[in-house]
Specification:
The chain is an all-alpha fold. It has helices spanning about 5-15, 15-25, 30-60, 75-95, 115-125, 130-145, 155-175, 175-210. The chain is built from eight helices and no strands.
Length: about 210
């Protein structure tokens, strides 16, 4: 399994994604809704990686990716471009950190059932521009290193684990976790920009350090 792409799992789940997971564990049908949401995240992440791996393979046929040791290869240039997009997104979050507000649709999740929770999990991964950039980055990374989908299992697993953390906390700590969730949600809302920057920084460092 390719562990170099693991930091991007944190980038995948910051913002509305993890906030949705926290809201679901405080909803009336918390366990069922949360399990459905996690299933949606798992399906969408797996499908997204597979699709973007295919896109990267098509790009590889059109453009010679080059050897991984060649810093000027097309594969590395594509990775640098995608990293640049992640940096741009992180910079945008930094600049808008004082006025950032959660999407209004998050409030509707308090009454969501399992079907809606599953749909939200799928759409949050496959329709969020930032997550699409992350998935494409993963796909190109796998293609450039001649790795198959199995090499991304650690990335997929960590993304799903992060989505499941609020539910695991509720099951393990009960009412103490329920009381803490609103505060955690507020902290995530006001500091998601920082988490995103840290995750992007780690990934950039990994890319630049590859020989």
């Amino acid at each position: 399994m390719d562990l170099r792409i693991l930091p991007l799992a944190f980038t995948m789940m910051v913002g509305p994604q993890i906030m949705s997971a926290i809201i679901f564990v405080t909803a009336p049908r918390a366990v069922r809704a949360s399990l459905a949401f996690i299933a949606g995240i798992a399906l969408a992440t797996t499908a997204g990686v597979a699709i973007m791996r295919g896109v990267a393979a098509l790009l590889g046929k059109a453009v010679d990716m080059g050897h991984t040791s060649d810093k000027g290869s097309a594969g590395h240039i594509m990775e640098y471009v995608l990293v640049g997009l992640l940096v741009f997104a992180a910079a945008k979050n930094w600049l808008g950190r004082r006025t950032a507000e959660p999407p209004k649709w998050l409030k509707s999740l308090m009454t969501a059932g399992p079907r809606k929770a599953f749909t939200v999990g799928v759409l949050l991964i496959l329709l969020m521009p930032s997550d699409l950039v992350v998935l494409l980055t993963v796909g190109i990374h796998l293609q450039h290193h001649h790795a198959n989908l199995g090499e991304a299992l650690a990335f997929i697993g960590l993304t799903v684990l992060i989505a499941a953390l609020p539910l695991l906390a509720r099951l393990l700590f009960g009412r103490r976790a329920e009381r803490a969730m609103p505060g955690v949600r507020e902290w995530m809302n006001t500091h998601s920009w920082l988490i995103s920057i840290i995750a992007c920084g780690i990934f950039i460092a990994l890319i630049l350090s590859e020989g």
